Amino acid sequence: MGALKGEPDQNQTGLAANATGGLQTTASSAVAPAIPKPRRGLVVSTAMVLVVLLVGESVYFASNSPYFFTWNNWLNILTAAAIAGIIAAPGTMLLIAGQFDLSVGSGVAFCGMILAVVSNSHGLTVGVLAAVLAGIGLGALNGFLVTVIGVNALITTLGTLAVFRGLTEVVSGGQTQSVNGFSTLGSARPFLTIPLPVIIFVAVVAIFWFILRYTTYGRSMYAIGANAVAARLVGIRSKLFIFIAFLLSGACVALGGLINASQLGSGSPITAQGLELSVITAIVLGGTSLTGGRGTVLGTIVGLLVISAMNNGLVLINVDPFYQDVARGALLILAVSFDRLSSRLSARLAGG
User: What is the rounded CA–CA span in Å between residue 2 and residue 16?
Assistant: First the structure.
């Protein structure tokens, strides 16, 4: 049996042999049966459900508020989604490989605070560099604990979530720290009045879409999530690839922290609380399987738009903002339930 053909964002999880290039046919034949078959129909169903949900909520909010379908309001929706989307792109790749990063909210706050504190004492350029290194360092720590020490990613990132939120308090002394002369990144509108964070968001999504769809590295992440043992047997360096994914996640967390600090004009120890919930909800809602091997960045973005449009619409129709958390939690439960039901259905179809 040769390597499976198809696109990775169509859940072609049997591309482990292709990802290694020059592997022998006998090696791929020995492990190919262990890799799940593509579930093209289920992917289409997930995408259709998301599109219908987005259209339905948009029609509802537009019928109750004349401001919902305006250009400026949709720019507001995209701007509000930008930081979560930048972080959700590598988060999707991690979950495709069967990994989690729940430390992203604390990481954004920590990087923003490092920017504020360092720039106030050593200048803005050094502050930006320190913030970027802090984000990459967070990703490296998570990757080291998961791939070298062997700690479960869920436990690792829950631990670093608490650690870096605490370090943010320590570095700041529990106080908000101002950032001067750094408003451009968060507020500039260089093209058609589109905010710079939205442009960066689109660019990051495009990069990770390309990585997952067209590169050997991206196909390898699908193979690792589909069957880690099979991926290792055909020569995929799973630990190294996962470590790189955590580094990429950390870099995007740093970028999110810089944008957040630029928008607020300060670093705050309480900023980005609950961001990890929005990110993981968008990823799972977008069709990425909690067990790995299946998902797309574009699906994640549609899921994020569903969440952001819902939050915006609830505000416009004067619903208590606290209900936004209720709605996000309900969406996460629904998304996980749909993932489990689709997995069971796929298993039954494959078995008979």
Answer: 11
* Residue 57 CA from chain centroid, whole number: 23
Query: 351 pLDDT band (50/70/90 cuts)?
Result: low
Choosing among 1.10.3470, 3.40.120, 1.10.12, 1.10.10, the CATH entry for 8-31+38-351 is 1.10.3470
Q: Are 102 and 162 in contact (CB under 8 A)?
A: no
Q: How far apart are CA 169 and CA 38, in angstroms?
A: 46
Q: For the packed helices 297-316 and 275-285, what is the interaxial angle rounded to 10 degrees?
A: 120
Give every CB contact of residue 244 below 8 A, 6+ residues apart in sequence. 143, 217
Strands 177-178 and 266-267: antiparallel
Q: CA separation (Å) from 178 to 113, 138, 271? A: 9, 23, 13
pTM of the model: 0.83
First to last CA, the chain: 20
CB-based burial label for 33 (10 Å; 0-12, 13-18, 19+):
exposed
Beta bridge partners of 267: 177
| Amino acid letter, 47 | A
- Decide if pLDDT at 40 tops 90: no
Which positions ≥6 away from 314 have C-beta within 8 Å? 321, 323, 324, 327
Q: How does residue 146 score in pLDDT terms, banded at 50, 70 and 90?
A: very high
Q: Is the pLDDT of residue 350 over 70?
A: no
Helix (H, G, I), strand (E, B) or coil at 188: coil
DSSP-derived 3-state class of residue 90: helix
CA 47 to chain centre: 17
CB atoms under 10 Å from CB of 175, counted, come to: 10
Burial 59-97 (b: 16+ CB within 10 A, else e): eebbeebeebeeeebbbbbbbbbbbbbbbbbbbbbbbbb
Tell me: the pLDDT tens digits for 220-238? 999 999 999 999 899 999 9
Give the number of residues written for the chain.
352
- Confirm if 90 and 249 have CB atoms less than 8 A apart: yes
Residue 120 CA to residue 134 CA, distance in Å, equals 17
Where is pLDDT greater, at 46 or 49?
49
